Amino acid sequence: MTQSMNTKSRVLVVGAGAIGSFYGAVLASQGAEVSVVCRSEFDVVRDHGFAIESDKLGNQVFRPTQVLRSAEDYQGGSPDYLIVSVKVVEGVDRAALIRSAVGPDTAIVLIENGVEIEAEIAEAFPENELISALAFIQVSRVGPGRVRHHAFGDLSFGNYPSGISDRCRQLANQLKDGGIKSMLSENVVTARWEKCAWNAVFNPISVLGGVLDTDAILSPPEGEALVRQAMREVGDIAAATGHPLRDGLFDQYVDGTRKAPPYKTSMALDYENGRPMEIEVILGNTVRAGRREKVAIPALEALYALMKMVEFRLKKEQG
Amino acid sequence: MTQSMNTKSRVLVVGAGAIGSFYGAVLASQGAEVSVVCRSEFDVVRDHGFAIESDKLGNQVFRPTQVLRSAEDYQGGSPDYLIVSVKVVEGVDRAALIRSAVGPDTAIVLIENGVEIEAEIAEAFPENELISALAFIQVSRVGPGRVRHHAFGDLSFGNYPSGISDRCRQLANQLKDGGIKSMLSENVVTARWEKCAWNAVFNPISVLGGVLDTDAILSPPEGEALVRQAMREVGDIAAATGHPLRDGLFDQYVDGTRKAPPYKTSMALDYENGRPMEIEVILGNTVRAGRREKVAIPALEALYALMKMVEFRLKKEQG
Q1: Region at B248 (left for phi over 0; alpha for psi -120 to 50; beta for the rest)
Q2: Which are the contacts of B34, defined by CB distance < 8 A and separation ≥ 6?
Q3: Which of A145, A217, B215, B242 can pair with A44 through a Cys bridge, CB separation 3.0 to 4.6 Å?
Q4: Cβ-based contacts under 8 A for chains A and B
Q5: Residues B76, B103: contact at Cβ < 8 Å?
């Protein structure tokens, strides 16, 4: 009997899109009992599970223990880990989505983009352990129940508002056995701001230019200047909230992005494919934090205003 | 014999696109000898003239006295008025385009968008009278040699750098007889900055949102805020160059634009139709003036940077 406690973890993934089903599959491959709430593809996933294609980790079929339309249908007690990988867009009440499955010992794990996304959940579940995680991954849904893992996969996480619990370490171990590197972070809020300095800048810019790849963004000298200006503004906000970003981060982002083959951001891909864009959680929350902290953020304000116009146009076109 | 001196004026229009041919037609209708340089549609215009469709002024065929491929071919001396209505885009040397037709008594009339577009011509022809004109008109080319006048038509002009000469008044009279209202301006440079406060703001924004009409630009509260911020920046630049804009102008622009039926800017139409956009003359010159005058222009810099990225992408796509 060599199976560890870890491998018997009960996991519920709420919002089993590409990211949620990918990490769910990794944990399931290590013996965890992984269930999913997935509404739009319920029938396909119930009948066939998820087909996960990955050059890095191999192809696999992930058959969740329970396939549910709603967290209310979760059976057999409460999960040890409740992974929230719902896209944070307007009108989605994440607390309501998970409430009925959250037990007293459930650790809630947010694998979501953006900044300042934890407080809402922390306030709704003040007694529960909250783990905030950032996914560095390229993964996409390529068909009903079909997920393609393109590259990367690392997770960076820690407890909110700070610290690293035993549960975090257990989760990291399970993921590691499944081929996923975890970076445990004593201050995950700072880590979120660091990621935001890239995301809140490149994502909207890539949409505003009419789907620009990273090459088109950084090639004009004015382009790099705008990127750096907006990044500095994110850094100023982060510092004002008590989470100063590390020196050299912006150079690293610009140089790293320039050296990588040109690619389109996730927001540009959402825009191209008519999917909701994470404007509010990535850029809106950043701008609101900047206003609250009274930081000068003219470039971010301009990007945000332009994105709101795009959103207005799209809503109007969709009737 | 009631024909006035005015009606015998010799006029050469260089850059007979929609705007140039429209005003050329108006002057020809009042008896002026109007010739045109038009390269791309030379054959059609030589054989058939321009068909001008206008609900306001009536339909007419405008047959230029001389239809030329180049100003070098202009015959019979020099024109009294040389109208330059070439789109001011990168790589076009306007002085070289007109040089061979400019005589000692030729008044050069610039009917072109943008700010700080006169100095280049003033320096190239220091002995000639220079008239700078702004067209408030909606007019477009609808086919080879076919021009549609949609609305408006007023011209605002005066001498560069300032003043109103007899030649300006003569031109205004001729236009008036042809149905076009002229607003003579003692300080046409200020008038240019005033127009720029609308143009340098709404034009790029309309492109960056993926072709936004004025409704989509002003509907989100952040949209109006960005418009007003960028307008204030143009106003600061204009004031720094010694041309303070009049009080209430920005309110007038925002209110007027909001009240008008939603429409697309000229730059958005150029973008949609794959035509060169007047980024440099409208926005680039504004930004350069702001940098030169050391005015803080973060919103304009952001808009300019984004437009340079769009331009980069378009050039790349066109190979």
Answers
A1: left
A2: B11, B12, B13, B24, B25, B27, B28, B62, B64, B65
A3: A145
A4: 101
A5: no
Polymer length of chain A: 319
Cβ contact B280:B89 at 8 Å? yes
| B306 close contact with A: CB closer than 8 A | yes
The alpha carbon of residue A87 is apart from the nearest alpha carbon of chain B, in Å, by 23
- Are residues B302 and A304, on separate chains, in Cβ contact within 8 Å? no
Write down the pTM of the prediction: 0.89
Q: How far is B208 from chain A (nearest CA, A)?
A: 5
Q: What is the pLDDT of residues A161-185, one digit of tens each?
A: 999 999 999 999 999 999 999 999 9
Residue to mutate among B232, B271, B304, B309, with most A CBs inside 10 A, is: B309
Q: Kindly state whether A293 is in contact with chain B, defined as any CB-CB distance less than 8 angstroms.
A: no
In chain B, residues 192-211 whose CB comes closer than 8 Å to chain A: 205, 208-210
Q: How many angstroms separate the CA atoms of B42 and B44, rounded?
A: 6
Measure in Å the smallest separation between the Cα of A214 and chain B Cα atoms: 10
- Nearest alpha-carbon partner for B29 in B177, B144, B208: B177
Question: Which residues of chain A are within 8 Å of residue B305 when distances are taken between CB atoms?
Answer: 220, 222-223, 225-226
Homologous superfamily of domain range A190-314: N-(1-d-carboxylethyl)-l-norvaline Dehydrogenase; domain 2 (1.10.1040.10)
Domain B10-186, CATH: 3.40.50.720
- Could you state, in order of their start, the residue ranges of all structural domains in chain B? 10-186, 190-314
3-class state of residue B312 by DSSP? helix
Which one of B202, B208, B277 would you mutate to disrupt binding with A, by most A Cβ within 10 Å of its Cβ?
B208
> In a structure prediction context, what are the per-residue pLDDT tens digits for chain B, which is 319 residues long?
333 444 489 999 999 889 999 999 999 999 999 999 998 899 999 999 999 999 989 999 999 999 999 999 999 999 999 999 987 777 789 999 999 999 999 999 999 999 999 999 999 999 999 999 999 988 888 999 999 998 889 999 999 999 999 999 999 999 999 999 999 999 999 999 999 999 999 999 999 999 999 999 999 999 999 999 999 999 999 999 999 999 999 999 999 999 988 989 989 999 999 988 999 999 999 999 999 999 999 999 999 999 999 999 999 998 7
- Exposure b/e, A238-253, CB count within 10 A at least 16 = b: beebebebeeebbeeb
Q: Which of A293, A294, A302 is nearest to A229 (CA)?
A: A302
| B306 interaction partners in chain A (CB closer than 8 Å) | 205, 208-209, 226, 306
Contact between B234 and B240 (Cβ < 8 Å): no
Average pLDDT over residues A208-236: 96
Chain A touched by B267 (CB under 8 Å): no
Domains B10-186 and B190-314 share a fold: no
Candidate from B210, B222, B225 with C-beta closest to A313? B210
* DSSP H or E segment with residue B109: strand B107-111
Helix axes A285-292, A221-240, angle to 10 degrees: 60
Residue A104, CB half-sphere, CA atoms under 13 Å: how many?
Answer: 0
- The C-alpha atoms of residue A296 and residue A294 are separated, in whole angstroms, by 7
Residue B190 distance to chain A (closest CA, Å): 26
